[in-house]
Amino acid sequence: MVGRPSNEFAIKDIIIVGLQCEKTPITRKEKVSLQQRNHVISGFTIDKGWNEKTLYNKVKAQFPVECKDNEFEFVKNVSGVLVKPKLASGVRINGNILLKSIATTGAVYVRLLVEDDPDEADNSFHVTSKSRDHHRTR
User: Fold this and answer.
1) pLDDT tens digits for range 9-52
2) What's the confidence (pLDDT) of residue 129?
3) Contact 9/96 with Cβ under 8 angstroms?
4) Residue 73 φ then ψ, to 5°
5) CA–centroid distance for 123 within its chain
6) Hey, how many other C-beta atoms are within 10 angstroms of the C-beta on 41?
7) What is the helix (H) or strand (E) element at residue 36, kind and residue range?
8) Exposure string for 54-92, b = 16+ CB within 10 A, e = fewer
């Protein structure tokens, strides 16, 4: 139909957070820090048709040089808390699932599976006491 936007693609910001990050960045200082460290990628186009591997590789290709070798997981923003999504048995995170179930509104959050910046562990949006599953869900 002429004049209707395509439903096959979505443009999102990708926000890269460290393993210790439990909450979304709230303060101006936290947001500026992420921007200055190139941990916010703006205007990334996601194709709903991408399979799990393509999605993972396309997102990882956007990472700053110092993060390129790090594995990551997609996390869901639930009222300001970043949680690992619980998917139905057999469901993998592909472009469609990411956009329709995990990052339905706002940015796409990815959590590095290594500590990103130990100095940030003291910020209000980081909690270091909780243990986590370090296995990648791809």
Assistant:
1) 999 999 999 998 999 987 889 999 999 999 999 999 999 999 99
2) 30
3) no
4) -130, 150
5) 19
6) 18
7) helix 28-36
8) ebbeebeeebeeebeebebbbbbbeeeebeebeeeeeee
